[in-house]
Design brief:
two-stranded antiparallel ribbon; mainly alpha
Amino acid sequence: MERIADTLKMFDEVLEADSRWGAFVLRNRETREIRRLTLRDRHSDIEAITLVSAVPEAIREHFDTARNLLLYSWFVYRFIPVAELHAYSSVEYALRIKSGKPNSMLKELFKLAIEKKWIKDSGFRNYKVTEEEPREDESAATNPDINDAQEYCNILLDSFPYLRNELAHGSNMLHPGGLSTLAICADLINQLFDGTPEK
């Protein structure tokens, strides 16, 4: 695939969709009809990622900036990582307010949230528990992770600061993961303020 140069758009192209969105389609499960993704589809998906009213207004406003950036990636595809970085910053902002530690680093705040059980795996919409029988040589006594309600949170503990730093310190990372990143961030923030993500 030919690399697309990301330059300042010409004035008469400002309101045109970024050409990369032409590769995205939706398929109707019932009719099996395939159609191109539209701006309305994109808006609907982003609109579904919300923070509960218990989240302080300053954090909700901060996160809405990330949602708007993601929406405007329809016109400038490279707004996706900018939206993700802003969403990661919203999480850090929320952790600082929740913890009362305004000068702490993201990883330290994340560890605190896990220790205090402010966040749990079950609070993330994309986390699914599979029912598996333990092997004969495996039990909760020999493997404490079997019933760990924060196994996914511990994965995020390592990946979250890494991905945030990768974007914050300059990177050409670009992938269509904006929706899932913002959903994870919203679920985490909602849990901090006792919100329950919609499934």
